[in-house]
């Protein structure tokens, strides 16, 4: 697997992602908790971390040793540095949006503020690096396959819809879940697979990533969880920030639109011409109109 970013694999989070599947059950539980809550661990004691992760303090010390740290304090320092550089996030559910029972007359204002915060936190040096790397792979690939199942299907279809408007090499496989393996067999080397893997993860998405990884097909993962089981099969990881307060896919939608705009800009020689032709054709066939419609009242 290629590096998820220029030096991500050298961080403590990168190490945890690589080894967590090989860990004993309790240490794996702890590893997953650390990956998703690294920003908070800097102020915790070993006992507090153990309580939060529902493990014993001995498990904390064993994992610390497993990562080749002499003390928990040194581990905390490295976690703090990784959090600053890579904008790690916490796991969330839609139900978090409904749990605040405090009376408020400004729900829309709170939602707007949280979304703006998520967008700002998503941007990091590693995110920029992986975004540009994704664009380069999209340009170099012979075909761009897109997959998103269950809660991730909407995002996958949105990306596919926008790209299909001007690019002929898009293959949307999100809507054929019952024929997924048939579609995977048609993906060849030189192509890429973009997977939307938001929690909770669809088992078929994990299997699709594993299949591509084992057959030399590069996988780009867009997720809200760095501990996603798909991460280990991915060449590039685009980690969008998720909220612990409310449900929002705005960071994912924003990323999709940024990918489409940059990809279209890099292929502007033919993409603009294609969009112009499409617009004229739709107009000629009375499918769309560029004129203002006038209605009689």
Automatic annotation (TrEMBL):
InterPro entries: Homeodomain-like_sf, HTH_RpiR, RpiR-like, RpiR-like_SIS, SIS_dom, SIS_dom_sf, WH-like_DNA-bd_sf. Residues 134-269 form the SIS domain. GO terms for molecular function: carbohydrate derivative binding; DNA binding; DNA-binding transcription factor activity. It comes from the Bacteria. The keyword DNA-binding applies. Residues 10-86 form the HTH rpiR-type domain. SUPFAM superfamilies: Homeodomain-like, SIS domain. One of its GO terms (biological process) is carbohydrate derivative metabolic process. This is DNA-binding transcriptional regulator, MurR/RpiR family, contains HTH and SIS domains. It comes from Lentibacillus persicus. The lineage of its organism: Bacteria, Bacillati, Bacillota, Bacilli, Bacillales.
